[in-house]
Amino acid sequence: MLIQHKQDGHKGIYYIEEDGNVLAEIIYSSADNDQLLIIEHTEVYDELRGTNVGYELVHKLVEQARMHGQKIAPVCPFAKAIIDKKPDFQDILSE
């Protein structure tokens, strides 16, 4: 499954698309001179539920944050739960 990325200014999305339909997405915005990524929403549609795709989307955003020296503020309850459960994701949490 290919995770794609789009960014437009301070808004971004990682998503999985099939036949022109978005099947999973994580939406974020950046703040503090792009040093903070705010996870606003994560959604996995029925076709991909139970396939660990939600985790993969959060992981992709964590990788981006690490690569660019950014921190993450997970406003989305799903993303927050994933990050809270993973000890190796704690370094990217904003204070």
From TrEMBL:
Residues 6-94 form the N-acetyltransferase domain. Pfam families: Acetyltransf_CG. It comes from the Bacteria. This is N-acetyltransferase domain-containing protein. The lineage of its organism: Bacteria, Pseudomonadati, Bacteroidota, Chitinophagia, Chitinophagales.
